[in-house]
Fold:
Amino acid sequence: MSDILVYALHYEGAINKNSLGAVSEAASLASQIGGEAHAVVVGEGVSDDLAASLGNYGVTKVFRAEAPEGLAQPVVDVMAKIMSEQGHQYAIFGGGLLGFEIGAGLAARLGAGVTMEVTQVNVVDGKLAAERPILGDSSISTSTYKDKGIIIGRLNAFEAKENDPPTPATVEDVQVELSPFSTKAKMVQRGEQRGADVDIEGADILVAGGRGLGKAEGFELCDELAKAFGGNTAVAATRAVVDAGWYPYAAQIGQTGKTVAPKLYLAAGISGAIQHKVGMQSSENIVAINKDANAPIFEFSDLGIVGDLNKILPKLTEAIKAKKGG
Ligand SMILES: Cc1cc2nc3c(=O)[nH]c(=O)nc-3n(C[C@H](O)[C@H](O)[C@H](O)COP(=O)(O)OP(=O)(O)OC[C@H]3O[C@@H](n4cnc5c(N)ncnc54)[C@H](O)[C@@H]3O)c2cc1C
Structure:
């Protein structure tokens, strides 16, 4: 059987956008390989409406399990049981750290093949073939699977497509006994990170900050400048700083983050590593501030300012405010 199972992450009564993309992608792929796409929702008291709403994105059936949501191991238990008993050949995740963790655990549990950071899935001879960029996005590696395959998308790789008219899915409750080690971790707090809802991909102007900001509070300089620009402006970040916890992952640009192409990309304290460059090189205008005249970012900037961002950013903010008459 060539059915595909998709994990649908949800929070406060809404399904995660990347999960909806994975659901739509799975539905389209299942129709091409003669199978069905199903989803799984995990949590305490997930409503019929929320579970069934996944049908609007193309799945015919939703498995619902009472288990802790937002933690990897309970979801691995749930998905491993469903895939083993119902014979799903593939699992697809929309990306994000939780998807990576669940997908890896599921692959180990089922002895399945796993591909992460997938940007496209094709059908070759009736089977799924997952593409992921490698070597700083300069090449594509294609994975096929001998038996079961776990495919984990890069964030925003799959587009959510709503059916018109809506077609609710059937909801089937599944009972799963969690492994003893799956109940060791407890969810202490769940919430949105500061800036997690910022739409950096849709912004016209991005003020991006890197390690050169020195500390988390350094981002206030970027926030101030973004506020002075006003309009459709957002603050973005490098991986180095999101890994350090200075700014939310949702704002990360680059190979393992988001790809952007704003009208103006202003980089403050960013060295311009290849993994960052691949996510912003299509920006219309690139302005970089860096104290090191040999920083790689100057090689692909339209305008480079060599100097200390702690002096330049506030001056730039003042100049923009003055120009705008505020
Ligand atoms: C598999 C893989 C995937 C990756 N994916 C990504 C990704 O998606 N996105 C990403 O961004 N990175 C990614 N990276 C990390 C990447 O290689 C770099 O480490 C990262 O981009 C560096 O971030 P940075 O520019 O903030 O820090 P740094 O490289 O440390 O640069 C800081 C810069 O700030 C300048 N500076 C310091 N103080 C000041 C000051 N006062 N005024 C002005 N300038 C100053 C310095 O001269 C330096 O150029 C990835 C790496 C790997 C291995």
